[in-house]
Amino acid sequence: MDSDADDILVRGMKALTExxxxxxxxxxxxxxxxxxxxxTEWRQEYFDSTxxxxxxxxxxxxxxxxxxxxxxxxx
Length: 75
Prior knowledge:
Mean pLDDT: 85
Shape: extended
Strand content: under 5%
């Protein structure tokens, strides 16, 4: 595995653990591993069910409720 893939795995696990905790992260990985999960298909189904402008509206609401504070991690 290359270093970029390693970095993504480490950062992904960190994000999952921060949001879900250790047990929740393990359950998430177990569900994803057990289920035949196709992210591309899920994403297409998700966006097919949204009305035009809905995603943009949600993004704007998120940005208003979570203003940039300047403490982002530089990639």
